[in-house]
Amino acid sequence: MSTWQGAKLLVKYDWMSIGYGWLFNIAMLFYFIVTTTPLITQLRDLELVDSSSWAIDFIMLAIIPVLGFFMNMTTIGNWKQAKVARKLARFRLLPISYRQIAVGRILTMVTILAPSLLIYFGTQYVLVYHDFLTPLQFLNFSLQWLGYGIAIGCFYAFLELGFTGKAYFWSCIIIMFLILGVAIFLAFNRYALVIHQLKAVQAGDWTLAAIMLAAAAVFFAGIIGPMARRLSRRNLLG
After folding, report:
1. Contacting residues for 134 by C-beta, under 8 A, at least 6 apart
2. Residue 92: exposed, middle, or buried by beta-carbon count in 10 A (0-12, 13-18, 19+)?
3. Which DSSP symbol is given to 140?
4. Which stretch of DSSP H or E encloses residue 135?
5. CB-side exposure of 75: number of CA atoms within 13 Å?
6. How do residues 198-217 score in pLDDT, each as one tens digit?
């Protein structure tokens, strides 16, 4: 069985074993929509950069990669009960290579993230963005965030499979604070990331979309080897 064949079977297994976890994903997605809509409404005036600009930047940077992960008990309880380690231990009893596990995990993340962003951005376009972006401009904007979500999601997946549940949990907390620091730093320097993106797409500039999609491809291809090596050395006792 090739790497891709095995990986696709693991993706199918992940989707079949989610249980009611998808309800938490839907709930989180619509909470994201509700909380960001008032902030996005202010973006109609792209010349306005006020004290709230850091909030939309932080929310977008922090939450979008998380939408690529199931909100089931394996994810939620991993930090305390080492559920991912138990899952990997079961995989080791089967004729599954570490590379297949790595590719399968990344593909699962992408198959969760893509429809989640389709729902999110589709809803937001109907509610707000249609007032100042054409469909093509909004596609440009959405692809930028898809690329970002895949790139950072690959890194999260590496941490999830490669380290203990507690180490993964604290790593995520640290990353969130770093993202918050970046958003506040940009706001202090009167640079609003999302507003800058919107101005660029209105000007017909696809550069950032190309960069982020290229980054996603690089992270996708580049993380598989390190993830497989990390899996081969990981202690599954925690």
Report:
1. none
2. exposed
3. H
4. helix 135-162
5. 21
6. 889 999 999 999 999 999 99
Q: pTM for the complete prediction?
A: 0.89
Which residue intervals of 51-134 are DSSP H helices? 53-63, 73-76, 78-81, 83-92, 98-127
Which secondary structure element, helix H or strand E, spans residue 197, and what is its range?
helix 193-202
* Whole-angstrom distance, CA of residue 84 vs CA of residue 71: 13
Instruction: Summarize pLDDT for 40-71 with one digit per residue, the tens.
Output: 777 766 655 555 678 888 989 999 999 988 87
Kind plus residue range of the DSSP H or E element containing 141: helix 135-162
Query: CA separation (Å) from 174 to 89, 170, 180, 223?
Result: 27, 6, 10, 20
Return the sign of the alpha-carbon dihedral for residues 35, 200, 222, 11.
positive
Mean pLDDT of 84-109: 83
* Cβ contact 179:57 at 8 Å: no
Query: Which of 4-8, 37-41, 138-142, 233-237 shows the lowest per-residue confidence on average (mean pLDDT)?
Result: 233-237
Q: Tokens in use for 6?
A: 């095995």
Look up residue 194 and give its two tokens: 């999302």
CA–CA gap between residue 29 and residue 137 (Å, rounded): 23
Indicate the residue type of 16. Answer: M
CA 69 to chain centre: 7
Share of the chain above pLDDT 90, in %: 41
